[in-house]
Amino acid sequence: MSTKNLTHSSHIQLANSINKDHIARSLEHLAKISDPAFGTTGVTRLAYSDTDIKGKNYIAELMTQAGLEVKVSPIGNTIGRLKGSKCDEFAVISGSHTDSVINGGHFDGIVGVICAIEALRVLQQVKDDLIHPIEVIDFAMEESARFGLSLLGSKAFMGEVSGENSLLLQDNQGVSVAEALKNVETLKYFKNENNKSFDSSIKRALWAVEESKADVKKIRAYVELHVEQAGFLEEAKIPIGIVDGAAMPTRWAIQIIGEQAHSGTTPMECRKNALVAASEFVLLVDKICKDEASHDTVGAITKMAVEPNAMNVVPGKCSMFLDLRSADKESKDRVKNILLKKLDEICSKYGVTHSRKVISEDGPKTFSSDIMAISQKACENLGLKYMVMPSRAGHDACTVSNHIKEVGMIFVPSKGGVSHHHEEWTDIDDIVLGTKILLLTLLELATTK
Ligand code: GLV
Ligand code: MN
Ligand code: MN
Q1: Pocket (CB within 6 angstroms of ligand 1)
Q2: What's residue 5's pLDDT?
């Protein structure tokens, strides 16, 4: 990959025509689309909910206004395409997500989608110079907040979803991914071209996964702009992060099975209290991860349900989710081995049993040094300071990097490092700077062989 075009003053001019008001208005508009069932604190657009669909319809509208050709794949990925006039293959892709956690912020994922649309709106001006088309993708279900499973849209796009297991996972209301997925049909730009009909939601979901696969060989490169979600850029007063890799999660669903009993009449020595065993495990995860702090390994039990959850009953069952992350594979493996051994020990100590299901098992990712060099050069040309840094969160870029080498990410600062919280904040001026670097990186990739 060359960097031959990067110093063109016309390219710098294009970067400087990114419209701050467009971006700010779109961010504000999307932030108002939030599920009222979760109150008015922050933004809630859980994957495949009606609110998520509303948000995605708004994104499709923005894509149309930017002059992009819009289509929605059956898994719910919304794709806007700017055609290269000299070649319609080997697309340069920029993507992220607009679904959210519960009571989240205005920026996680959203910045990557809205700013890529703005960059492509500007790049319409040079579409005759493109030798590769550029696409922006709002990937479906990046967040694991609803089903415990993340990155479904990008995994389906890259052909990584196999079998029924992930599609059968359920939310707190007992709705499965496969059932929720049907809501994609209500997206304004969704077309069921062959008028397919199915006698079960799982068959339909398997079809949606299959139909949403991209031809990986036809992807030239992928670049994602995202908020940092940590505080390193702000602390160093640096506006741009060039991401060299990412930590990825190991996620387990664990069930501790004890014995439901009368909480007044059952003698203490006869109890098989599932919650007591689970509680010891919660503390253990915290301790073991703190012991691995020098390797930046982090982990927690992030979700727990107690059954029957009643005042006068000794808990018979406890279901919990473990989210364990590290960019250091050896450290993560060490933690996993300790947790497995200790889980057995804790269960036998309290006379309970357990079952465990692996929801995700992803290793650390390394991004392309060629794309990093292009983004670094773009920063130098605009006179911007940058920092090379890893990502501690998972992103759609990580899925893409399992299949192609040419993947890059650009970070903009998060105030106080706050994210997955309603106070998540990034200054609009920093977002504009990130969009300029994104535009220059995409332009370079779309105008060179
Ligand atoms: C993304 O939101 C993650 O959980 O890393
Ligand atoms: Mn997130
Ligand atoms: Mn995100």
Answers
A1: 143, 393-394
A2: 60
